[in-house]
Amino acid sequence: MLSTHANILQCRFHCHAITRIAHGLLSNTSACLYNFTVLGIARCGGTDPFKLTAWSPRHVCGIVGLFLKNGELQSCLGMHLESMLTTMSDRGPDSAGIAIYGSDTHKDKLKFTLQSAAAGEVFPALERVLASKFSQPINMQVIDTHAVLCLDHAIAAAVEDLLKLEFSDLRIMSRGESVEIFKEVGAPADVSRRFGIARMSGTHGIGHTRMATESAVTTRGAHPFSTGPDQCLVHNGSLSNHNNLRRDLKRHGVHFETENDTEVAAAYLSHHLASGLTLGDVLAGALEDLDGFYTFVFGTRNGFGVLRDPIACKPAVLAETDDYVAFGSEYRALVTLPGIEHATVWEPEPATVYFWEH
């Protein structure tokens, strides 16, 4: 049986949803999704096809983010992100990923983060092919199932074409001057340990631990999703109009690799950023175009932005000090950060854009 508290929440969110339907702001499908999520309908089973099973609010995705104002903390970025994300493990044990924005960037260099299930065979072969076809130096750092290529901008397009033609089983996790994305199936602690996240430094980063709902548990389906240079998105929630958005973006030449609704949201944001809009304008536009419930943290080379849908049924907390801005699905993700006891802590408002940039 659902608790009184759960029923109160259900009534509150459902009434908000009905109000939004009356004003033409929310589809009936989304209202049902909000209602079902708060009610905690896990699955049907047994002899009663309509039986409700108990649901824990933690059995959903968890997201974190850390933006450093104080450069002296950059060497500890990975350590803090790992701790924050590991704390969120019980919100989704299926897969995990972290995006690190490094401080040692060069405008004439571009980085590709690649992933292969057969890294021991594929990456040595790739290194040989690159050395035979390009005179310019290309640095490759292999980290477990991932590899980071660092190369001149001048040959980036040719290298990407080669990857698609001759190494089609490789997955490009990210591209850009700063970002590196590491993600795999497994719990956050295991994924972080495999890639040595705690030893990584940088200016800011975001992370995600996933409980798969609308698509398969795969490396490709893990977050963060990167759909533009130095851009990536982590998401807690579900979009009800992602298929329509996917079709529209495909008509504009956008390519998709998964059936994940978060990839659609990431592509939507990247597509509009490419048109020249600011991050704040793009996130504001998402409130009009994205139907569903969501909390987003979107990373760019210079910082990150946070956005919750107008009902804001997915939990979120922000904390800010003179040294950093931190985001977590729950406050407990932030408790190990230095000086958190002196931070300004608040819950992000619904339908409000927040972003911080260097």
Please tell me about this protein's structure.
With 358 residues, the protein is of the alpha+beta class. It folds into 3 domains: 1-55, no CATH class; 62-105 and 180-357, Glutamine Phosphoribosylpyrophosphate, subunit 1, domain 1, CATH 3.60.20.10; 107-177, Alpha-Beta Plaits (2-Layer Sandwich), CATH 3.30.70. It is built from 9 helices and 16 strands. The longest helix has 19 residues, at 4-22. The protein starts with a helix and ends with a strand.
Tell me the name of the CATH class of the largest domain: Alpha Beta
Which residue ranges are poorly predicted, with pLDDT under 50 across at least 5 consecutive positions? 1-59
Share of residues in strands: 25-35%
Helical proportion?
25-40%
Domains counted in the coordinates: how many? 3
Straight-line distance between termini:
49 Å
**Whole-number radius of gyration?**
21 Å
**What is the assigned CATH homologous superfamily of the largest domain?**
Aminohydrolase, N-terminal nucleophile (Ntn) domain
Give me the CATH fold name of the largest domain: Glutamine Phosphoribosylpyrophosphate, subunit 1, domain 1
**Secondary-structure class:** alpha+beta
Taken in chain order, the helices and strands follow as HHEHEEHEEHEEHEEEHHHEEEEEE
Average of pLDDT: 85
Order of neighbouring strands in the sheet with most strands: 7-2-8-1-14-13-15
What is the CATH architecture descriptor of the largest domain?
4-Layer Sandwich
Q: Report on the biggest sheet.
A: 7 strands, antiparallel
The total count of helices amounts to 9
| Molecular shape | globular
Count of distinct strands: 16
